[in-house]
C-alpha cells in the first residue's frame, strides 16, 4: 500500500497468476529503491446446505475483504452473511434463513 502518493513511482514489470489470483509488480521509487506491493484476489461460488457453506482458502487473512451475494436463489432464500473467518483456512457463509439452499457468489480481496 502506498503511504505517500506524492512520490513518483516507476513500474518496470509485473506478473499476474490467474489460477491463484496473485498480482505481483516490481515498483521503484524515483530514487531507485524498490517498493514491494502484492495482493490476492479471488472469486467463486458456494452452495448453501441448510443455510451454511464453508469455503476453504488458505490465502484468507484477518484483513481480507470478503463480499457475498445471492447468485442463484434456492429454496428458502435469505440474506447471506459471513458467520466466521479463519485466517489461513477460509470462511463460513450463512443465511438468515436456516433452510436456504441458494448458490452464493463471493469475492475475496487481500492486500
Question: What does this protein look like?
Answer:
This protein has 111 residues and is an all-beta fold. It has 2 domains: 9-39, no CATH class; 41-110, Immunoglobulin-like (Sandwich), CATH 2.60.40. The chain is 0% helix and 59% strand. It is built from no helices and 8 strands. The protein has strands at 9-17, 22-29, 34-47, 52-56, 65-72, 80-86, 90-95, 103-110. The strands form 2 sheets. Strands 1-2-3-8-5 form a 5-stranded antiparallel sheet, with no helix packed on it. Strand 6 and strand 7 form a beta hairpin.
Task: Report the major sheet.
Answer: 5 strands, antiparallel
The assigned CATH architecture of the largest domain is Sandwich
**Domains counted in the coordinates: how many?**
2
Helix content: under 10%
Using only C-alpha atoms, the radius of gyration works out to 18 Å
| Residue fraction in strands | over 45%
Low-confidence spans? none
Pairing-aware structural class of the strands and helices? mainly beta
**Shape summary:** elongated
Distance between the termini: 8 Å
CATH class of the largest domain: Mainly Beta
What number is the mean pLDDT? 82
Amino acid at each position: 500500500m502506498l503511504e505517500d502518493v506524492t512520490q513518483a513511482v516507476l513500474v518496470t514489470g509485473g506478473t499476474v497468476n490467474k489460477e491463484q489470483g496473485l498480482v505481483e509488480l516490481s515498483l521503484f521509487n524515483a530514487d531507485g529503491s524498490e517498493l514491494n506491493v502484492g495482493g490476492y484476489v479471488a472469486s467463486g461460488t458456494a452452495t448453501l446446505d441448510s443455510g451454511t457453506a464453508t469455503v476453504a482458502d488458505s490465502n484468507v487473512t484477518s484483513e481480507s475483504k470478503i463480499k457475498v451475494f445471492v447468485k442463484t436463489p434456492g429454496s428458502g432464500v435469505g440474506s447471506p452473511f459471513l458467520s466466521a473467518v479463519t485466517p489461513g483456512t477460509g470462511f463460513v457463509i450463512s443465511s438468515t434463513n436456516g433452510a436456504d439452499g441458494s448458490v452464493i457468489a463471493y469475492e475475496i480481496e487481500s492486500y
